[in-house]
């Protein structure tokens, strides 16, 4: 189908269009027209999960096939055929190396891949083939013409993998290196929002690109997560071990090849520019602006052994802080002051810590960087300390309020989502934030600090009335039901919740998904239902599957749940709002004929981090606690 919005021709790959789709397109055009760009613009489309990325790529592929088949001129056809779209995800999903790809953890895949592909190893291999092991899939890419590593067209992740296998080229690096040349890039939020990753992946994206955040109802949480870090005691222990290993390595290299350290020293005096550009970088430090990169590294961490001593002192300091047995909440400024008073560690060398470590790792040519991950985390934590406002350090010595054995956790938390997204708004001129469930709409501009050009919500057209929302406030015995903390474990409420589930499983065909506000609550209720015989009653009609915090267990449960829905046996899936199941998995058609939500999924309001965040939102943006909590619960329920 072809139609026009103003004078812009739209080619739409379906025979019919919903009114809301048309309205959306018109508004989108208005948004993009707000600033005039004479050039062709790249589209950066961000989604949350790998299946969603794959889905968006398949849709795009379909659209381009349609465009090519219905092109009105040879010129138009050639233009559409040269259009290129790629999706980027982690090495874990795109590696085809026979051994590395078998690793289960993403971090290990990353580290092993870096060992095989870092510039030092590759150079050595080129000088003396056979002396070191490299990844051939990566090596061959170097021989190809940049910008021509894969033919034009739209490639789903599965397509890229297949192409890589057939041609003996690494799919991951193919996509990474092709990014400056493609018309559409689809990847996850983190590649733009997480400064540690964004610096490496998205730095090259041109400023006139159009950025779309799809499924963006949780974007504030992604922003916050990307700038927050939790440190536990075992992590610090492991960081201390890594520092010791580093020290040993330095001693070793001093006896074998002292000139290397000297060279590094000279380079560091000149500046950091070179150290921060490599594709294989191990940590990146978004704190350092271009002019800082030109600066010399502070004198007291320039020498490798001084730097290691500096790290040791810092880890020891954090360990000492963790011995405290009461909760501490302090601002970064007071933390830095205390740090300075006790250890004489100043702010400036801390800022350069990540880059300095990166340079050292390169100089020492360390392998299996995953073993140094604790150290890496720790240097990252320095990053979050950069800003005086919007960050808080919370030390919780005990896991729960009633625990007696200390299990300290240092939360370096970001309270202000606007900090992570600010660089995106500053850099790109068109940013579209879209989701099926953002309400109220004006919460985002307030929370993320931007002024929208167009802000619209659209009703949904249904061909038939297929939704029946029901709010149940009383059970069949007229007892009021609620998941309020005081009454949620009352046997009458629990029994009534159970009866609702039994009644639904009797009359609803195929799959029923039930959501609880938290794992803890779900566990207690399921145990109580078992004692009351409610589960036996449900079993007569449907199989029961339960989501657990373990991702593997949950995916097996999900697979079997689908099987039971497909073969007509029918099943109930008990899951948690904000858990794995509620994020990014579609319960369409027979997989979700009914959804039951036991209670409103409010966040755990006793959490110190949440309290701090609420306080910040109130003070900085005048968003009331109840306003945010309600917004957050509703977006989770609606999703
Ligand atoms: S270069 Fe590619 S194929 Fe080789 S190990 Fe790394 S991700 Fe895997």
TrEMBL record:
Keywords linked to the UniProt accession: 4Fe-4S, ATP-binding, DNA damage, DNA repair, DNA-binding, Helicase, Hydrolase, Iron, Iron-sulfur, Isomerase, Metal-binding, Nucleotide-binding, Nucleus, Transcription, Transcription regulation
Domain Helicase ATP-binding: 7-265
Locations listed in the record: Nucleus
GO biological process, one term: transcription by RNA polymerase II
Co-factor requirement: [4Fe-4S] cluster
EC number: 5.6.2.3
Listed InterPro entries: ATP-dep_Helicase_C, DinG/Rad3-like, DNA/RNA_helicase_DEAH_CS, HBB, Helic_SF1/SF2_ATP-bd_DinG/Rad3, Helicase-like_DEXD_c2, P-loop_NTPase, RAD3-like_helicase_DEAD
Regions annotated as coiled coil: none
Catalytic activity, reaction form: ATP + H2O = ADP + phosphate + H(+)
A GO molecular-function annotation: 4 iron, 4 sulfur cluster binding
GO cellular component: nucleotide-excision repair factor 3 complex
Predominant subcellular localization, coarse grouping: nucleus
Similarity comment: Belongs to the helicase family. RAD3/XPD subfamily.
Record's protein name: DNA 5'-3' helicase
Species of origin: Hericium alpestre
């Amino acid at each position: 189908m072809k139609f026009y919005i103003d004078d812009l021709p739209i080619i739409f790959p379906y025979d019919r269009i919903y009114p809301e789709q048309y309205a959306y397109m018109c508004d989108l055009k208005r948004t993009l027209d707000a600033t005039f760009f004479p050039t062709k613009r790249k589209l950066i489309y961000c989604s949350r999960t790998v299946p969603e990325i794959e889905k968006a790529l398949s849709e795009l592929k379909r659209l381009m096939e349609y465009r090519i088949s219905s092109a009105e001129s040879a010129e138009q056809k050639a233009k559409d055929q040269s259009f290129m779209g790629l999706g980027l995800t982690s090495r874990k999903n795109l590696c085809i190396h026979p051994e590395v790809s078998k690793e289960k953890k993403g971090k290990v895949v990353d580290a092993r891949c870096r060992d095989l592909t870092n510039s030092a190893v590759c150079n050595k291999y080129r000088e003396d083939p056979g002396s070191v092991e490299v990844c051939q899939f990566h090596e061959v890419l170097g021989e190809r013409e940049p910008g021509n590593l894969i033919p034009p067209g739209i490639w789903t992740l599965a397509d890229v993998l297949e192409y890589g296998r057939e041609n003996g080229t690494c799919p991951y690096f193919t996509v990474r290196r092709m990014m400056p040349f493609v018309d559409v890039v689809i990847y996850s939020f983190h590649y733009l929002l997480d400064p540690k990753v964004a610096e490496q992946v998205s730095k090259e994206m041109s400023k006139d690109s159009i950025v779309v955040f799809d499924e963006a109802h949780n974007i504030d949480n992604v922003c916050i997560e990307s700038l927050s870090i939790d440190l536990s005691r075992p992590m610090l222990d492991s960081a201390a071990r890594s520092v010791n290993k580093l020290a040993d390595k330095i001693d070793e290299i001093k006896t074998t090849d002292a000139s290397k350290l000297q060279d590094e020293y000279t380079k560091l005096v000149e500046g950091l520019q070179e150290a921060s550009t490599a594709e294989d970088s191990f940590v990146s430090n978004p704190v350092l602006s271009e002019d800082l990169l030109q600066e010399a590294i502070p004198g007291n961490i320039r020498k490798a052994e001084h730097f290691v001593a500096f790290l040791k002192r810092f880890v020891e300091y954090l360990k000492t802080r963790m011995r405290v047995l009461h909760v501490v909440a302090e601002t970064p400024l007071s933390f830095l002051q205390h740090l300075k008073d006790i250890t004489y560690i100043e702010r400036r060398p801390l800022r350069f810590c990540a880059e300095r470590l990166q340079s050292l790792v390169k100089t020492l040519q360390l392998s299996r960087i995953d073993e140094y991950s604790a150290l890496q985390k720790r240097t990252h934590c320095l990053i979050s300390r950069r800003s005086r406002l919007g960050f808080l350090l919370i030390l919780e010595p005990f896991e729960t309020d009633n625990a007696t054995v200390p299990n300290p956790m240092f939360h370096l938390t970001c309270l202000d989502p606007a900090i992570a997204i600010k660089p995106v708004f500053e850099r790109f001129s068109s940013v579209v934030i879209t989701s099926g469930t953002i309400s109220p709409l004006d919460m985002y501009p307030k929370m993320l600090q931007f002024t929208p050009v167009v802000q619209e919500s659209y009703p949904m057209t249904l061909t038939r009335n297929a939704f029946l929302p029901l709010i149940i406030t009383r059970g069949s015995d007229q007892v009021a039901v609620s998941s309020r903390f005081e009454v949620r474990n009352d046997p009458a409420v629990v029994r009534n919740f159970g009866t609702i589930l039994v009644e639904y499983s009797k009359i609803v065909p195929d799959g029923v998904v039930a959501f609880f506000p938290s794992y803890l609550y779900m566990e207690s209720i399921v145990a109580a239902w078992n004692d009351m015989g409610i589960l036996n009653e449900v079993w007569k009609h449907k199989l029961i599957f339960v989501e657990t915090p373990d991702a593997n267990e949950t995916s097996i449960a999900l697979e079997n749940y689908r099987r039971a829905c497909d073969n007509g046996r029918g099943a109930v899936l008990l899951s948690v709002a904000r858990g794995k199941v509620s994020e990014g998995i579609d319960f369409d058609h027979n997989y979700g004929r009914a959804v039951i939500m036991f209670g409103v999924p409010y966040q755990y309001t006793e959490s110190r981090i949440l309290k701090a965040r609420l306080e910040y939102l109130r003070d900085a943006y005048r968003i009331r606690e109840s306003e945010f909590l309600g917004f957050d619960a509703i977006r989770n329920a609606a999703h």
